[in-house]
């Protein structure tokens, strides 16, 4: 009988979905990988910690000692999942890790990543940030051919495709499997001795390469370079759209995927998802957010006494807006950082507690003032309504809401957790109607052109971004997946 190569140390399943007290779109995942370091698992743990903002429901690490893969996954936050003892059970010089906030697939340990399986040629582990838009078709085809799935996640489809490939080498199997999937993906693969990092042909989700100084063979890959800072790694470059990096004993090799497409990096990474201390596509996220605020000030300037952000994500845009309008910037709302995302279940009936738990007004900043409140987006409008009321109840004379992105009118099918179109308030209401609903004196959204101009920067190309959730211009048709049956309208390419 063939020897099994996987040692799986999963905690017992915990099926509670973490509460989400924000009215935001949510990134699905963050990925981190390291090749060639004696403390690969410990560094992956730290990298995942730095990427925790990209997913708080589950996390996992797979390592290899050159002989076999070791897996640990669990529901919860990185710091709660991995103890020193757990990390010691993940030996070897290569590791990949994942933090997850579910989109495709439900919230369950079965869907936690990395996925790892034994197959005829050895073992393989995969972690994925994104969403395969043709997952339903592929799953049906594979099931008809006898595949048995352990999870409802689209990523498992890819694992089956790698295992069933008729190609011989690991790299060729991965390329073969990728030829079948469509959609958004930043992926890390691991077998016993090789790590592969790959970004989809449009580069919708970010992925970057770094190196550990003094360990010139120690290469790191992460969703955002902010994960490199924590472990002292140096950022080398973004992995290109459609590029695959094969990292093994021979070094790093770049391979181009055969599919060609126009780049479509997710513009929402700049607006909200990425950490402000990251840089993506050669641009500082913090600087881009400030520029979004400056453009917003040009498009929707108003006389006021104070500019306040909805913290934390609204802070850089508010700084930019205040500077451009020459209005004092103040912290009129204070965020509590001690409210865990697992505090309560996100039921509509109690969701309003969440806003007060997270934010509290600073009355001396607001009393008697004309206040501009800067936020990055409005999804359902329920949170904005509570924030405006909070500011007004604290004594503000006028409340003017400014949003550093255009109205979010369309769901995302490329790896972001979004409500249905009907739940998006801007899909069925004008800005004036939304202003009335949230009880703001005025409301101004940044235009699509303004947002793209700020993201691209002076002389940059504003066409290389996905903005489907604002414009409805989807670049890849969504064909549905097992748990995610929403329909889309393919408007643009
Ligand atoms: S639809 Fe929106 S959130 Fe989704 S990838 Fe495009 S810009 Fe990003």
Polypeptide structure, described:
The chain is built from 16 helices and 26 strands. Mean pLDDT is 89; it is low at 12-21, 341-346 and 482-493. It is elongated, with a radius of gyration of 23 Å. It has an eight-stranded mixed beta sheet. It has a six-stranded antiparallel beta sheet with strand order 7-8-9-10-14-15, with helices on one face. With 493 residues, the protein is an alpha+beta fold. The site of iron/sulfur cluster (SF4) has 12 residues, from helix 16.
Summarize the structure.
Helices cover 27% and strands 26% of the residues. The chain has 493 residues and is of the alpha+beta class. Helix 13 links the parallel strand 22 (370-375) and strand 23.
Strand order of the largest sheet: 1-5-4-6-3-12-11-13
Number of helices: 16
Shape: elongated
Tell me the strand percentage band.
25-35%
**Overall pLDDT metric:** 89
The biggest sheet amounts to:
8 strands, mixed
Give the termini separation. 51 Å
Radius of gyration (Å): 23 Å
Bound molecules: iron/sulfur cluster
Content-based structural category: alpha+beta
Label this structure with key terms.
single chain, 493 residues, alpha+beta, eight-stranded mixed beta sheet, six-stranded antiparallel beta sheet, 27% helix, elongated, disordered C terminus, binds iron/sulfur cluster
């Amino acid at each position: 009988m063939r020897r099994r190569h996987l040692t799986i140390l999963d905690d017992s399943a915990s099926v509670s979905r973490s509460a989400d007290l924000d009215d935001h779109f949510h990134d699905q995942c963050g990925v981190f990988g390291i090749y060639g370091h004696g403390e690969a698992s410990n560094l992956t743990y730290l990298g995942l910690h730095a990427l925790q903002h990209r997913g708080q429901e589950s996390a996992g690490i797979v390592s290899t000692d050159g002989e076999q893969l070791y897996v640990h996954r669990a529901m919860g936050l990185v710091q709660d999942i991995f103890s020193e003892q757990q990390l010691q059970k993940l030996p070897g010089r290569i590791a990949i890790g994942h933090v997850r906030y579910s989109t495709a697939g439900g919230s369950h340990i079965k869907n936690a990543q990395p996925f790892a399986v034994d197959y005829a040629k050895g073992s393989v582990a995969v972690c994925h940030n994104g969403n395969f838009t043709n997952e339903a078709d592929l799953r049906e085809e594979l099931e008809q051919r006898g595949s048995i799935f352990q999870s409802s996640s689209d990523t498992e489809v890819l694992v089956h495709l790698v295992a069933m490939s008729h190609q011989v080498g690991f790299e060729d199997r991965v390329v073969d499997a990728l030829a079948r999937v469509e959609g958004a993906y930043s992926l890390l693969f691991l077998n016993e001795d090789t790590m592969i990092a790959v970004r989809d042909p449009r580069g919708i989700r970010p992925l970057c390469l770094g190196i550990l100084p003094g360990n010139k063979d120690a290469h790191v890959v992460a969703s955002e370079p902010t994960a490199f800072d924590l472990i002292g790694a140096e950022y080398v470059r973004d992995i290109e759209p459609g590029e695959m990096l094969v990292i093994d004993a021979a070094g790093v090799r770049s391979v181009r995927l055969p599919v060609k497409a126009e780049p479509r990096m997710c513009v929402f990474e700049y607006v909200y998802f990425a950490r402000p201390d990251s840089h993506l596509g050669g641009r500082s996220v913090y600087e881009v957010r400030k520029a979004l605020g400056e453009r917003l000030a040009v498009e929707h300037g108003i006389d006021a006494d104070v500019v306040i952000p909805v913290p934390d994500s609204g802070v850089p845009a508010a700084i930019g807006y205040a500077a451009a309008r020459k209005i004092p910037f103040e912290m009129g709302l204070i965020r509590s950082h001690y409210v865990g995302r697992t505090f309560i279940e996100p039921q509509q009936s109690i969701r309003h507690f969440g806003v007060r738990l997270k934010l509290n007004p600073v009355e001396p900043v607001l009393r008697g003032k004309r206040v501009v409140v800067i936020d990055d987006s409005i999804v359902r409008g329920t949170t904005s309504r509570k924030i405006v009321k909070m500011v007004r109840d604290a004594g503000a004379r006028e409340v003017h809401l400014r949003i550093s992105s255009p109205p979010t009118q369309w769901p995302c099918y490329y790896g972001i957790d979004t409500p249905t179109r009907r739940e998006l308030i801007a899909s069925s209401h004008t800005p004036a109607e939304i202003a009335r609903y949230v009880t703001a004196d005025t409301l101004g959204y940044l235009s699509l052109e303004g947002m793209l101009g700020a993201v691209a920067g002076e002389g940059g190309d504003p066409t290389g971004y996905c903005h489907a959730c604002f414009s409805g211009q989807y670049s890849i048709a969504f064909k549905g997946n097992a748990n995610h049956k929403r329909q889309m309208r393919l408007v643009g390419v």
